[in-house]
Every structure is written in C-alpha cells, then in structure tokens.
Amino acid sequence: MDIELRLLRSFVAIHESGSISRAAERMACTQAAMSMRLKMLETEIGAPLFLRRPGGLVPTPRGAEFYAKALGVLSSYDEMMSVTRHRPPRNRLRIGMPDDYASGWLAALMRALGRDLHRLEVEVTCDLSANLMAALERRDIELALVTTAARPVQAIHSVDLPLVWLVHPDRTPGEAVLAAYPEGCVFRRAMTQTLDRAGVPWRVGVQSRSQAGIFAAVRSGRAVTAVLQGAEPPGLLPIASGANLPALPDVAVHLILAPDAARPARQAADILKSCLLAHA
C-alpha cells in the first residue's frame, strides 16, 4: 500500500469537518475531487471509512482508527520538513533522570545553558534509575542523574543529599501508608527499612512509576512518600520526622557521563555537578 500524503490530508479534513463540501473548501478543491480522493483511499484500505448520516459523515471504527494513525504520519512528515527547511543544524543533548530530579534540576540546567540552548535539541528521559542505567549502556542517553544502591563505577561525581518525608499538611497520624515507586527504588527501600528499624507498621498503599501518581496519593492525605529535601511540590509539606515517621537517611545521587559523550553532554555534566554541590 502506497498512499499519497494528499489523500491522507483530504481524509483528515473530511474526518474533522464531517462533510465532503466543507472538507473541499478547506482543501481548496471541488467536491467531486474530494469525493474521488475518499473513494481512492477506501479502495486502498479495502473498507469504508465513513457512514453517511443525516447530520453528516460519521467515521466507521476503521475510519476512527485510521484517523489517529494518519495524524501521526502527517505530524511526523510536517515536522521533518520544517526541520529540513527552516532550522539550522542542532546538536543533541540526551539526558536522563528520575521525575523528581527533573523537577528540581532540569530547569536550572536549562537556564545555565543560556545561549547554547538555542543550538541544542534537548531530549530528556524521565525513568527509574535502574532503567536509566540500562539506557546509558545502550547509549540511548549520554548523561544521567541516578540513585542506586551502590555507586556506579561510571559515576563522575556523587553527593549525599537529605531525604525527607512528604506529607499533606492535614494528614492525620496513623498507620504509615506509603506511596512509592516500584521495588528496586532506593527511596522506597529507605522508607521501608527506616520504618522497620523503628518498629512502625507500614504498607505500600499506592505504587506508581510516575511522580504525578505518587504526589496525587500524598495530596489525598492518605499516604506519605519520601523526596530529596528541596524537591517538594507546592501544597505538600516536607518534614524530617513526625508521628510514626522516623528520620530518613541521606541518599547518594550519582552523575554519570558516557565515556564517548559529545560536548553538549559534557557541558551539561559540569552544570549539574555545580547544582549538586550547591544542593548538598
């Protein structure tokens, strides 16, 4: 199957307007030409893409599915042409860090890059530290901030930072219900081991791979979590310790740079190193 982009654009216009005539006006062609394009596309697909109803054209299930895919193809094509025609060549900076580290340090990195940022295309991967380590091995990223159980041999800088509890201001003290990343997360292990040593009952009430899911659980007032001091979002309260919440240990944050990293990644590594030193 080899479908012209013109047919895809015509199909999208029909889908979004619900009318052959309105789609023809949008595409600056005749209704006959628009009808012919739809017929050609349905012939290529081998199935009807719209049903005719009194209120206009209604997409079939196949049409609705094809619309989503057509948008993706057209978006990728338009972006490719825009980059080729209008943008000067740019270097790529591929960096990875967990969600909570990104909220604390990514903005500072972008500001510090200053004028150099205009010559960069920054690709940020937010994931668990273990997954970021694997991404570094695959060379999917060149620079990463991670927290692991042991210091990675590739780390170019490490710093111990304080870990605090994050709670809702109106939380009622009681059983320690945790909102945590999946098993393997250093923050999760710090919480559970600290509570075990203090003899405090606990359970993981919410598990999420995203910071948004964890913070939403804490905002409910029914769960608590752990964050680096200074990385707390507005509306939630960081505390060193409290009722049934003994003080947490410091955690190590490691900065890792791929040996063959390009100049933008090395420049970003210097900036992040300064950020870590200032945060310590």
TrEMBL record:
Residues 3-60 form the HTH lysR-type domain. Coiled coil: none annotated. Gene3D superfamilies: Periplasmic binding protein-like II, Winged helix-like DNA-binding domain superfamily/Winged helix DNA-binding domain. PROSITE patterns: HTH_LYSR. Keywords: DNA-binding, Transcription, Transcription regulation. InterPro entries: LTTR (IPR050176), LysR_HTH_N (IPR000847), LysR_subst-bd (IPR005119), WH-like_DNA-bd_sf (IPR036388), WH_DNA-bd_sf (IPR036390). It comes from the Bacteria. The keyword DNA-binding applies. Belongs to the LysR transcriptional regulatory family. This is LysR family transcriptional regulator. It comes from Albidovulum sediminis. The lineage of its organism: Bacteria, Pseudomonadati, Pseudomonadota, Alphaproteobacteria, Rhodobacterales.
